[in-house]
Amino acid sequence: xxxxxxxxxxxxQAAPKIPVVVxxxxxxxxxxxxxxxxxxDAMRVSRICLCGITATPPNKEIHKAAxxxxxxxxxxxxxxxxxxxxxxxxxxxxxxxxxxxxxxxMLPDFTPSGEExxxxxxxxxxxxxxxxxxxxxxxxxxxxxxxxxxxFNVAVSAGIVLWEVSRKYAL
Length: 171
Fold this sequence. Notes:
CATH class: Alpha Beta
CATH architecture: 3-Layer(aba) Sandwich
Number of domains: 1
Oligomer: single chain
CATH topology: Alpha/beta knot
Strand order of the largest sheet: 3-2-1-6-4-7-5
Shape: globular
Distance between the termini: 21 Å
């Protein structure tokens, strides 16, 4: 790990983060949750909000995919995703659902402004982001797709979006 210049868990906690919060809305698969933790660690997001039926650490299935990222990335749990989104907006976050909806912004065209605090809501593997939650958001971001399928696995979506968004914030 030294040769890769990886941070220890303690160094990660003290390191600057991008002003991005990930919100997981009713994610069923612990493997997907763990993958989002691992990606969030890699991109240095501020925290993850686990909502609804989304499982929380400690959990051996989350750990299998997270590989200890569930210990480095700050997280909170809130039963009601809409309540979490409302709270984030009160804290000054611009909140975007990652969803295919009318008026969505294509990911390559999405540019957060400067130091803007951003919350990204990723939805359930079957039903996506709850409509009530989409309605509360400031907008929606859509990942362009060119094949016969019109969806990505939620962990893959998080990886794509967090990579693209993290590039737009300088650490």
